[in-house]
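As described in the Methods, two query proteins were run sequentially through the folding procedure within a single session, without resetting any intermediate state between them. The first query and its resulting structure tokens are shown here.
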Amino acid sequence: MKYFNLRNRTILGALVRTDFKIRYQGSFLGYAWSLLRPLLVFAVLYVVFVYIFPLGKGVEHFPTYLLTGIIFWNYFVESTVMGLTSVVARGDLLRKVNLPRYLLVFSSALSALVNFGFGFIVLTIFALLDGIMPNLGWLLIVPIVCELALFSIGISLLLSSLYVRYRDVSYIWEVFIQMGFYASAIIFPLSSVAVSMQKWFFINPIVQIIQDARYVLATNTSATIWSTQGVDWLIKLAPFLIITIIFILGVFTFRSRSKTFAEEI
């Protein structure tokens, strides 16, 4: 495949390494922040929603349940935020070097995936401390992560191509992220929502992905799009259709606009 030949893979690897080095350059703790950030967020939310507002009461393995949502959500946010600015941030490189534009977006997604890998190590340790033993079912995390990566890349391709001309896109996306955090059942168990309403949450692909991950990693009592009553096949297919449409739209928009990136930046 010409898009992923040896030259492009080499460039992609160099971009990912550069992203990762620059991110923590000048930081006292450096790469440790890859582990500390999700842990600090988890610690705050755990105290609030276990001891102050006990939303996690009755949820089996709630620490692992909560941390799973945080780590998967952080990957989505980091991948899309970095992807959004990836083309503009490397405008000078585009003018000097002839390279496929899509590599800039892919490097952001892979860089975020490296951070996700560190977070998953922490999540595994927490699961063990929480009395959960890894099993073959954990392998299902691979297609779940691939689904999340595809969704993130599709959004990044779309947003980055628009951001080159319309810088307001970043502010709009920030609002969507803030809304999405509270609308994606990250800080509260979906089981606390009325069954008649749960099915509408699953139209959001992030909800479907996180709930599936929680079912695999934390507890098989986690509500999923497959187990919730009253979910018809149209709703069950909705998140996958949305991901597919966004990815295709992102690829089409990026390809049609990438020819003028160097002149517009």
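Immediately afterward, the second query was submitted; its sequence and tokens are:
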Amino acid sequence: MQRLLLLAAVVFLAACGGDTNAPVAHVGEEAITHSELDTAVDHFRDEALAEGRSFPQKGSDEYRVVERQALGLLVYRAEIVQSAGKLGVPVSESEVQQRMSAGGEDEGDSAFGRDTLTAQLAYEHIYRRVTAGSTASGREAAMRKWIAQMKEAYKDKVSYEAGFAPAS
């Protein structure tokens, strides 16, 4: 009986468009919501259309590919931002505001743009920490090594809701 009620609830939510605050993935304790994923896909759709490129129809296989790529980006950003905090170089709200005020960040007004900026600042903090003391030629290698270690550290801390796992 419980399974039947659960199935009915799932069918009802799907018919209503689902819960936009429902998580599609988790990175550590942080949930990435369906709404955040939709916002990222909308950003890429708007960007493609502004550049005169076509964009796949929602529900198509091609759209699912774009959706999974966007989710991969959101997971990566969460890993970077969380890692900056763990390294003791978190991004502050004042840094985000200062960078937005400095201009040149077209996307800073949107939630997607703000998150892009936060992840970029986190990457910059990490880069400075990880490459400190490296020679100019060794910086890229040091950063590649650190990214690989970060991905390995997060492999058991990232999970996806049914239907949202990346294609293998």
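Helices lie at 2-15, 34-50, 61-86, 93-101, 111-131, 139-154. We note this only descriptively and draw no conclusion about the first query from it.
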